[in-house]
# Entry
Amino acid sequence: MSSLQGYIDRRVLLVLQDGRAIVGVLAGFDQKSNVVVSDCKERVYGLDEGVEEIPLGLYLVKGDMIALIGEIDDAIDQAVDLSTIRAEPITPIRY
# Structure
């Protein structure tokens, strides 16, 4: 839990168990690993078109829905042309 403290006010990528990829600034978290992400966008991947970014604004994500949290290097992220990336969407986790 305390490892999330280092990500506060930094851009992060959340990969959720339902396959969504959320990018935004980590604003806060609690003891259950629920997180608040500000200025966030969902990145939707597809094989036919480039990555689509859907603005979400301020977003609350339940901790048990999060599969991965990682910090994004802004310089590298801005240098990537998302319209040229083709990828299969991440499939949801099945129990």
User: Anything to note?
Assistant: The chain has a mean pLDDT of 91. The radius of gyration is 13 Å. Residues 74-79 form the longest helix (6 residues).
